[in-house]
Specification:
This protein is about 85% helix and about 0% strand. By secondary structure, it is mainly alpha-helical. α3 packs across α4. The model has no long low-confidence stretch (mean pLDDT about 75).
Length: about 80
């Protein structure tokens, strides 16, 4: 359900609104977004090769910042989700 909503909103709904704002530069904006996404995915792949037995972003954060960071980050996300509701 969550993935379907993200894909539906991100690809189908927001693309039309974005195309309306950008106008004739829409293909160039798509190319720029593809380049940014490519660099982001490349950095994630390089990070996965640095720590091959581990997986997931939470494991990478624990390696980089220690165990308390992931716990504090999850608590902060839960706090903000309660505040927003």
């Amino acid at each position: 359900m969550g993935t379907g909503v993200m894909i539906g909103a991100g690809i189908f709904a927001l693309t039309g609104q974005f195309a309306e704002q950008v106008g004739g530069l829409f293909p160039l904006a798509f190319v720029a977004a593809a380049i940014v996404s490519g660099f982001s995915s490349y950095s994630y792949v390089k990070l996965m090769h640095a720590y091959p037995p581990d997986g997931g972003v939470a494991m990478f954060l624990m390696k980089a910042y220690g165990n308390g960071t992931v716990t504090a980050g999850m608590a902060l996300l839960m706090y903000f989700s309660m505040v927003i509701d």
